[in-house]
Amino acid sequence: MTEPKTDKLKEFDEKLKLAKKPKEVKEKSQEHKAMSNAYGYATELLAGFVIGAIMGWSLDNWLDTKPLFMIVFIFIGAGAGIFNVIKSSQRDFREQQAAEQAAADERKNDTN
To answer: Are 81 and 61 in contact (CB under 8 A)?
Structure first.
């Protein structure tokens, strides 16, 4: 009579271990997503500077007005890069809030 109970306990223990694994994976993937976002922001900011500098340098060479356009376009590129970082971070923040709200709703539904 004790064997069916121990089988059920072993089965329950295996199911419990399986249920815990996705949470660990999810936490690690959140860390990787944060790092990925940080690299994306840095790339967007750097791209603004570089593209602005290249455009300014090209105009300066074409119009022979060194370094006027390069300085102007570096500032324009920096502004565009900062604007892109702000937009991206706001989008990522909204996605994170929606995911947290969905998880909270799911926990609420599980307890009911």
So the answer is: no
Instruction: Quote the Cα angle for 44-29-110, to 5°.
Output: 125
Taking the CA atoms of residue 96, residue 97, residue 100 and residue 106 in that order, the dihedral angle to the nearest 10 degrees is -120
Counting other chains too, the contacts that 83-87 makes at CB distance below 8 Å and 24 or more residues apart are 84/44, 84/45, 84/48, 85/41, 85/44, 85/45
Any idea which residue has 């947290």 for tokens?
Answer: 100
- The sign of the torsion formed by the CA atoms of 44, 50, 51, 56 equals positive
Rounded to an integer, what distance in angstroms lies between the CA atom of residue 20 and that of residue 13? Answer: 11
Which pLDDT tens digits describe the chain residue by residue (112 residues)? 456 677 888 888 887 777 766 655 566 677 788 889 999 999 999 999 999 999 999 999 999 998 999 999 999 999 999 999 999 999 999 998 998 898 888 888 877 6
**12 Cβ neighbours under 8 A, 6+ residues apart:** none
